[in-house]
Amino acid sequence: MDAKEISLEEVKVKPVVDHLNDLLANYHIHYQKLRGCHWNVKGKSFFTLHVKFEELYTVALTTIDELAERILTLGKPPYSTFNDYITESTLKEIQTIGLKDTDMVRALIEDMAALIEMERAILDITADAGDDGTNDMVNRFMQFKEKNTWMLRSFVNED
């Protein structure tokens, strides 16, 4: 399958796919960071953050699947190796063992800000390509992170 099968121009879809693959790689790093925070959070905020981190990594996992499936819908292969994720991601891994709970939250806020920035760029690219399906999907991802960024910033009293 290629993009013309869903009434999109192949030449306009290539930048969409490239950016979606970059977003996919970054989401994998973000997902693993969320898992590490979930597993390693300690202290007075344990019960609150343990549940919140699980919610966030569950949504991130669904997002990863949707991104990969959208790339396939556009007729291209998604990144699918850890090497791809680590090499292509601008987000970086962190050691969550022993990390203070508020530092975990701040690291996730930084990730979400970077992901939102990538998603805003994709919205411009999808608009140019006439790819409303991808645009709607990415916009939904972005809205979720915008709300959760506000919540996490409030948690660390940085709202």
From TrEMBL:
State the Gene Ontology terms under molecular function: ferric iron binding; oxidoreductase activity, acting on metal ions
Q: Which residues form the Ferritin/DPS domain?
A: 18-157
What's one Pfam family here? Ferritin
Instruction: Give the protein family.
Output: Belongs to the Dps family.
Q: What name has this protein been given in UniProt? A: DNA starvation/stationary phase protection protein
Give the organism, scientific name.
Mucilaginibacter glaciei
Q: What is the lineage of its organism?
A: Bacteria, Pseudomonadati, Bacteroidota, Sphingobacteriia, Sphingobacteriales
